[in-house]
Amino acid sequence: xxxxxxxxxxxxxxxxxxxxxxxxxxxxxxxxxxxxxxxxxxxxxxxxxxxxxxxxxxxxxxxxxxxxxxxxxxxxxxxxxxxxxxxxxxxxxxxxxxxxxxxxxxxxxxxxxxxxxxxxxxxxxxxxxxxxxxxxxxxxxxxxxxxxxxxxxxxxxxxxxxxxxxxxxxxxxxxxxxxxxxxxxxxxxxxxxxxxxxxxxxxxxxxxxxxxxxxxxxxxxxxxxxxxxxxxxxxxxxxxxxxxxxxxxxxxxxxxxxxxxxxxxxxxxx
Length: 270
Known about the structure:
Layout: H1 6-16, H2 26-39, E1 43-56, E2 59-61, E3 66-74, E4 81-84, H3 91-95, H4 98-102, E5 105-117, E6 123-132, E7 137-142, E8 165-171, E9 180-191, E10 197-200, H5 202-207, E11 212-214, E12 220-228, H6 232-241, H7 244-247, E13 250-256, H8 257-268
Antiparallel strand pairs: 1-2, 1-3, 1-5, 3-4, 4-7, 5-6, 6-7, 8-9, 8-11, 9-10, 11-12, 12-13
């Protein structure tokens, strides 16, 4: 069994401590099961090893290698896959957060030994092709072209309005048997500036970090990732009124599929 350190477990617990919103009606539950059955194989697991170096006030602290497991979404038949960067590379959070920088702490991380674990249990060596820390996205692809087309999400990129129902699909980790899991949530707020993204309820967003987002027809609508505030004073205020992520000035949001596919065009050429 892959081993993780106490620090990695604590970090994961912070990200998944709240449970997603549950479906309420029989029709809702049937729709969620249908989406999971049709799209579940396109949601896989990214495995890797995280090498880290932490320092505070100029003093280095030992940071042993950590095993990484995160839900990932296959975008096309060639195996181009996207994952929320923060779920596999916590160093990206430190790098863009002024509140943590002000504490004179730094964390440098490197993700190595990347593999894609397919639904049948096969582990495929993969390579990182593109990262976008602003949108909290990491793109990887198989190191060698797959022998057969990989299951992937559809090419549609639906947009959502406030109160629209959506389905969150993710892969459980090894302790739960790598199973696909799904839940029903709703868009609470649509933000258009400086670029479009969606807010979910606090419970659904926090518990769904890294999840694939679909509409009730099973069309891929985006990915739950972290958006960081650039204002350290705002971070401090949130720390008085919110949870751990708010204290760090971060909010889980849905990055639209249209943005993901636009960035994926760059990854496709690498």
